[in-house]
Structures are given as C-alpha cells and as structure tokens.
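One such given next:
>
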Amino acid sequence: MQNVIMLFRIMIMMTIPLRAAGSLQQNRLFLDFFWDLARPDQEVRLKAVENLVHCCSLQEDELEYTFKRLVDGLGHTRETARPGFSLALGQVLSAFEDVSLQSVLDRIKEKHSLQAVKKVTFGHFLYCVCCVLQEPPVVLGCVKLLQSLSQHKQHLKDLPNKTMTDILSEVTEVFEEVLLSALQTDLASAFRTPEQLQLLLVALQRFPQTLKPKKLKNLLGSSTIINADNIPRLTEVLKMAAQSVKKERVLPAVVLDLLKLSLKEDSFQLFWNKAIVDGMLKEQQGPTHFLSFRLLGAALPLLSLSQLKEVLSGEVMMLYGEHVVTAQKPDRFKLAPEMDDYVSSFLQGCQDSDRQLAVMLGFSSLTNQGYPVVPSVWRVVQHLQPEALLGYVDWLKNMFLQPQMDRLLDFSTRKQKTVLSNWVFRLRKWIVARLSSIIDNHQVKKQEELIMDVARFVFFHAFFSTKKASADIAETKEKLSVPLDERTRGVLVNSFFGLLMSMHHLPLSDDSAEGAAVNQKRVLGVTADGNMWIYHLVQYADVLLNQPKHVQNSRPFSPEQRQAWDSMLESVANLKKKAKKGPSAESSAFQQLFLLVGMHLFKAPEELLDIMKDLQSCMDKAQEKKAKKKKKKQASEQQEEVEPEWVEVMVDILLSLLSQQSRHIRQVCKTVFSSICPHVTAAALTAVLDVSNAFMEGIHEETSSGCKFIPESDDSEDSDEEAEDEAMEEEKDDDEEEEMENEEVDQNFRLELMKVLQQQNALATEEDGSSDEDMDDDAMMELDKSLSALFSEQKKKTQAKKDEKAKLQKERTLVREFKIKVLDLVEVFVARQAGSPLVLGLVEPLLTIIDRGMSSNSEQQEQDFLRRAADIFRNQLCRSKVYCRTAGDRQGELHDLLDKLMTKAQKLSDSSVCLYYFSASLYVVKVLRGAPPAETTDEPVEFMGNVDVDRVSTVFRDALSSFMSRRKSPLTAQMFTDLFSRFPVLCVKLLDTAVQNITSGVRDHQQGQACVLVLRAMQSREVQQLLHGAPWMKLCGNVMDHLQNVGQAESKVVKEKVVKVLELCQFVVKQVHHQKLSVDMDPLQNVLQPLTSSIAFKKTGKLEDTYWAVMKHFGVTKPKVEKTKPDGDADQQEAPKKKKGFLPETKKRKKRNKPVLEPAGDKSTSTNKPGADKGQAKKKHDQKAKQKRPADGETASQLNPSKKSKTQPENQPAKKKKKKKKPKQKKE
C-alpha cells in the first residue's frame, strides 16, 4: 500500500513544473496537504485545511495549482475525501477575496459535467462558500446549480435539497433580493416531499418578515401552513418522512419543525389530533407509529403544562404502552430506551417542577392491567427537582392507599381479553418497588425527611394497621380504600428489609457532609445527628407498640416477646451511653446487631426470641467480665468451667442468624464477628469449623452413596477411558436400581388391584369361566368405586413421594447455602487474626474440606464452597505476610503436625490435593522458624528459629525418597523446588539425597527431575554461601561422579533426561572452571564424547545445543558439515530431472516414491508415463505416510528407533495400538 501511495505521489510530482532543487522538500510537504485532505480521520483533514490555507498565504504562486487540485477533489471517488476538499476550497476562497467566485464555479462546471454526476457532491462546497461569502451572484448561481442537480436523484438522492436548506439557514441579506424568485417554484410545491416542506419551514423561520401570510397565500393558497385543508397533505408528507428514516430510526427534522410551527400558529391541538392521532396512528404498527412515539418524546420540552397533561393521557401514550408490552421478545425492536433518553434529557434540562411532575405522573399512570409500563427502577428520577420528587412520592403513597382505575391510563393487549381482578395487587407491588428504588438510588437528590418518611410508610403497612387516627402518627391519617391481603404484606415485608439494606449503605447528605474533612473516611448508614437509620426506625416502632388504641400489630407480640423487645432497647441505650465516653467499632457493631434482631422480631418472633435472649445474656456477661477481670480473676475462672464463654455464645448466635435469608444480616454478622475476633477462643473457632466439616461430611456421604469420584492421573488416555467405562457402568446400575424400585411399586399396586378384583368377583378364572358380562349394574358400580379409590390412593402416594423428594432437595440446598455463608466468618478471622496461634488450628480442618471437596460430585454449590475454602487457605493463610510468631511453646505440637501432614500427603492419590498439604507443611516450617532477632537488619541464611533441623530434614528426605522411588507419586518436583528456594538450610540437608537419585531414581523421569532439583539448588546464592569452600568442591565432585551414567536409549523420556543431565553438567563444569576447583573432569569428558554415536543428533535442537555448549568447556567445538559433490554417474542420471523445477533432491516426490515402485519392477519407467501420474495422484496418502529422511539416504528404521515398542526386539516390526478396534475384536 505504501508503494502505491508513493507511486501516485511521483506521478503528481511529474505534472508540476520543474523547480529549484532547494524547494524540493517544501514541494513535498505542500503535496502532502492534499493527501491528508482525503484521510478518513476528521482531525487530520481539519489540520490539513489549516496548513493549506497558511501555505497559500505565504506562496501565492501555488494558488492556481491549489484551485486545480481542490476542484478535482470535489469529484473524489472516496466519500470521506469530498467534504475535506470542499471545506478546503471554501476556506481558500474566504482567505483570498480578490479571487472571482464565478471563475471557480465556471471551472467546476467545466471539470464536472452533469453526466458524471455520480461522483459530484457540490453541496458541500456550495454550503461552505455561502457560509463565508454572501455575494448575491454567487449564491444565486449555487442555488440554480443545485436545482439542476436535484433531477439526478438516483445518485444524489436528497443532497441538493438539503444543501439548499443549509444555504437558507446561513444567508441573511440576499434572500428577498435574489433567492426568493429562484426558489418560488420549490416553495410552492412544499407539500410534495418532506425535503421541499423542510425548505419552506426553514425559510419561514429565517425570514418571517419576507414570507408574510399574504405571501404564503400567493404561494400555497392559504395564509397558514397548518389548517384543516392542509392536514391531509401534511399527513401524507409525514408518512413519506417516516418511511424515509425507516433504517436510520431517527426523528426527521421536518416533523419537529412542523410541531414547532403548530405551537407558533396556535394550532397544536389540530395538528396533534388530526395529523398524528387520526392520521399517522391509523396505519398499521410500524414506521408511522414509531415516528409518533419519537415526536412525543421530542415534544416534551416544547409543550406547556396543560399540553403535557393532554398529550400524556391520549392515544399516542396508549399505543406506546402496547408497544412496550408486546416488544418484550428479544427479536423485536424496542423503542423504550429511546423514550427513556427523551424523558431523561427533558428532566435534566427542565427546571419547572410542575412540568417535571406532570411527565413523571403521565408515564407512571400508563398501566397494563394495573402494572405500570415503565420499570420500577427508572433512572430518570435522579434528575427531578426536590419539589417534584416530593410530589411524586406523595402521589405514589396516595395511589397505594387509594388505588383508582379511572385515574390511570390502563390498557389491555389483544391477547389479554379479560381484565385481571388482582390489578390492585399488581399496582401496589410496583409502587412499593418504586419507592424502594428511589431510596436505593444514590444519585437522587433527597433529604433525610423524605428517606425516613418512605421507610416509615413501608414499615407501618408491612406490620401494622390503623384502628384510629392519631396526631402523633402521620400514617394513621389516611386509611386504605382496599384492605391489604397477605401477598401485599409479604411484598412489603421483603421490601422493608431490602430498604434497611439500602439505608445501611446510604452516605451522608450533601448538606451535612460539606463540613467534613477531605481525607476523612466516608461514613455510611448514619444520619446527620450521628445515629444509625435503623435506630430511628426502632424508635418509631416502639412508638407504634406503645399506642395500641390507634394502631394494631398484624402479629401481636406475646408478653415474653414484648419483654425481649424492651430489654433490647435497654441494651442499646446502655451501649450508646458507653459509646459517648469512648466510641469503638465493637460498640457500634453490637448496637447494630441488637437493632437488626429487634426489627426481625416483627417478621419471625418465634424464631428470634431465643436468639434475642442469648444475645442479651451474652452482652451482660461480656460487660461483667471486663468489669471484674482484675478483681475477681479466680472466680471468673471457676465460672468459665461451668458456663461457656460469652464469645462462644456470640458465635452460636451469629451462626443462627446466618441461617436467615437476608443479605443485610449476613453483612452485619461479618461486621460483629470482625469486632469480636480478638476475643475469640479455641472453642468458639471450633464451633465454626465443625459446621463446615459437618457440611463436607454430608456431601461426602452423598457422594459415596451416589457416583464415585475417580481422581485424575498422569496416564490420561487409559485412566480417562477406564473412568468413563466405570461411570457408564454405574449409571447403568443406577438406572437398573430405579427400574427395580418402580417394578416393586408396580408389583405392590398390582397385588392391591388383584385383591380388589377378587373381592368383587370381577377376576375371570379358568374354572368358572366368568366374565364382565355376568356382572349386574350394582356390582359394576361397586367395582368402579373400589377401583377409583385404589387409583386415587396410589396417585396420592406417588405425589407424596415427589413432594418429599423436592422438600429434601430444597432443605439440602438451604443447608449448603448456610454452610457456604459460614466461610465468611473463617475468612474474617484469618484476615483479622493472621498472627494468632488459633490460626494454626485452621490448617487441618481446611485441608479436610479441600480433600473431601475434591472427591465430591461436581454440583455448583460444592464447587463454590471448595473454591472459597481453597482461596482462604492458599491466599490468605499460607501466603499471608502476617503469621504466628509466638509458637515457641508449641514446638513439639507443630513438629508432630508437620509429620502428620507429610505422611498424609504421600498417601494421597491426587496431586492437586497433595499440593495443598505440601503448602501447609511449608507454612508450618515458616511458623516454626519465626522472625529473626530484632538486632539483625538482614535475615541470616543460617537462621531457622525453633525448627528441629534434623527432624524436619528427615521428614522431607523421606518424602523426597518416596517421590524418587515410586512410579506414581502425588509429589512433584515443583514442590521440592519451592522448599529449596524458601529454606536453603533444609535444601543443603537434602542435596545428598537428590544427587544420589540422579542414578538411583526408579525411572528415567525421576532421574531427570533429580537433576533439575540439584541444578536449582546449586544455582541458589544462599546454598552457595552455606557450602562455601570444601563442601562446595565436594558437592561438585559428587555430582560429577553421578553424571557419568548417561542414558543410551533413543526413547523420548531418555532424551528429556539427557537434556536435564547436560544442563546440570554445563553449570557444574562452568563453576569448576570459574572457581578453579580441583575436580577431575576427564571421566565426564570421556563419557560425553561418544554420546553422538549412541544418540542420533539433529542439526539443531535443545539437546544438541546443550551438548555442544558443554563440550565447548572441554575445548571440543561443533564440527562443520562439509557439502560433498555428487558422483558423475549420479549427475548423468539426474540431469533430466532438473527440468522439473528447482526443488532439492530430498524434497522431490519421485525420490520418495522409489521404495514403493521398486518391488513392482518398474525401475525403467520415465516420469512422462502414466505410472508417474498415478504416483502424483496419491499425494494425500503419501503425505500421511512420509517420514523425514536425511540427505545421505538413511532408512526410516535407522532414523526413528524411538518409535518402536520398548519391550519389543529391534528385529521385529512394531505393531500399532488401535484402541478403537477393541470392541470389534470382542464382537468377533
């Protein structure tokens, strides 16, 4: 592409007269401006226009060439280039006023004939010219030229008319003098097309003094445009405009201009009712309807209050509602997002609260059988003024209290023939959700009084009812016209607790937050006076409970429940008093927990009564323990032996609350547990872990009774096939068991049926030969009753089993969800108390959860639970920078734990689970080592803290020996690499074992991994520091001795091992030479030199490159392969073949087909015979069977001995394994 551009530039340069050599660079930059004018990027085009005008002003000799290029560019084939050239031409003309515009127009007419009008877009240029220069002859010439171009609609479409409209919108003084006579024909035919009507409307807007009513009457026959006589013609023009923008899906400008003209002429009602409602909406649903809907949205800022009320309660709104309801399917076009944008822009730009409220009420009153069409979460409410928002909330509350169908614009679709009787419930359900969404939207500008008013309204009608009006309770002044049913109360209850959740995250209002510091932490969930929102609601609830004469609780409290409520208020009051002395997060968390449990008493008083009592006693004990901690320490210890700690009771309470289906309770429980984490005891933490382990035990039991878990192994193909076979057999067994159960049920039912038939003597036997015909009518009726009762009972039994199964499944799901929530507490404790010794007690339980989770079935809940537990263990426990540093008194316990973990890890079958156990072992070692003394700035390499190095080394040495001696071990080399890098002291202890396994590993794979471990260890700087001097030289010599046994086979595994051996050799030899160690390397050199003869080397590769890198240290370089010329006889034989092409001999197909053709005795066949063509026809088969051959002609058996079977002699042909043919052998 760059070459083509350069070629074009050279051709253009050739057309320019020769200039001086010094101006060559300037000419090049000047030409680049024209190239930039054709770029698609608008910014580049504008910059090019600016530079071109500046350059022409400096060099006026370039002006002639500039006009030539710009006029040529008006007919550019690229659409994006033409506006750039037209704009540039207009700007150049404006800069050089002495240039005759008529000459430029003549030049355009000469260059661009009307026959080639497909490429011409003079409209852009003419518009630019008239914008900058308003000379009457030029403007008149432009308009006449556009009128002549308007006949070519197949190419230009409506561009000439649009350009004339743009010219009218810009010119000022020349209209009456010049253009009016030229445009008289176009203005007189305004009702023919939307473009001509748009031209007239623009002329009326720009020149009202010229186009007076008398002038309009001469042009159109009427002094006004919108009248009863012109409505039919206007309707047809509107329909044409709707069809013209069918693909663009926009509102034509002519329609909006007509609406503005109707408002100006005071004929809006005539235009709206006759042209839109009676004209456009009478068509079938399609572009005309969509244009009417868009016009409704665009007209909102233009209409007065009375006009808004009229339009929003008319036929257009009704049909818009039907469109929204019927367009719910994903494949249908939806105009609701556009309408939302129209309403949002209107509310954002309108400052009149009355008009805003009218629009909101109009759209909220549009209902489909009681349910409003607009969503309950409508974001446009955030643009309302405070007065409009208050009025809207009052309307919602009044409509909830006294729903009236006649005040709504209700409709039913064609499929909804009958009106629903529960329209009141549908309306109230939407209103409650609408009120809650207003509070939940933080972008809505609302005062605290409004928030509390909505919360009180929802709470009152959710749990109370009015008996008698009271001046102290505003909610009792208005009564319900339709009583609330249970479904509505359920919606109110759920919405109220969701509202509590939203209020818990509400920030302070803007007025109260102005005085706060910039860097101060943002406070959520409190009012301006510092109290929590829920506290104000509890105070309001207490007021309602204390006035039984005026209000009645839907679920009256028992004396015991009322006592719990009063004690809750007393506890909160005590906590607030103590918070005034010294505020703390613990006090705030307990207040919130008390208040939340108190509010939930209205929802489930029986369930939360015991929790409230326990919470109260727990709080009392906690306060007593703090007060008497110093004075009565011994007495408190005796009490602790009898009764559990208060924190244990608190943990039990939190676990009980987590069973509630409430996100708010879940967050509050996390907050409270976070505040009491410093006081949590081992027993309290055990209670949390027992819940999680019990959950996994239940899952494990379900799994063991159901499908069997098959761990993944390295041998993926065989193990996967065996697993699939076992799974298929188990599925068949399960299906057979279900069929057997069904057969047993059917058999029992069959026996019952036989009994009924025998009792009624309706069972035919061979002895009496009776039949149904011998029975009378009474006997038949009795038989029918008996059979009906039997089948009815059987149906009930079947349904009862299904219901029981569904109930168990639901309970199991709820229990699993609850146990997943319990992990929140574990995560909070690990995050807040990572340095506590109690965290060490989480290691084994979390590993048990992971181990059992890996062996369970793959349901989503189990996966979520397992993923969460694994994340807590790996990222927040093992990888945490904060860990327990005070484990000096638990050395024996931690060493025993390390032995237990490593023993368990070696017995596992899944490597992924073993990784978690190994990580836990490293974590235990880290805890045992602890932190170095404070005096030392850098951590010493030899420091191991409380670690018994000999005992721990023995544990890991046994694990390393197990990994090297077992064919299938869950341990991996990466695990020991992490051990070596994190604990260099242990690495030094295990190096001898790793070096020995270079030769004594059970398989070549283990031997190669031993080389990797030794290499990583020797590369460590810490290890080099620990083994500095004689130990390091001894290690290098020991490694040299074990590296002399290099594999001689050609298998892939052996080659991988040889690569790792050579990498280790390279490092050791380099160290010996660099440090000048006295190590004898001759035996290693003697072993490596004949390696090229035992293993076939390629020209390049990792094995070959590493080998020659090692040999380079011994002074042996890689030999260069000399190219040998072929013999003379061979040249004579292959001379004719060179005519076929330039491919090398090893790549020619005829040479590859020689072994196939030789047995057929066809050696003398030439390439021109059909035999050669037959060989070429088998191209696809030959490509599958071909093997790489070197130039010296070695056979495939010599090149690829590694593809033979390991247990097969070399003189026997290898047999391919075909697993897919096994079933066929069974059939035979």
About this structure: The longest strand covers residues 366-368. The chain is about 65% helix and 0% strand. The chain has a mean pLDDT of 76.
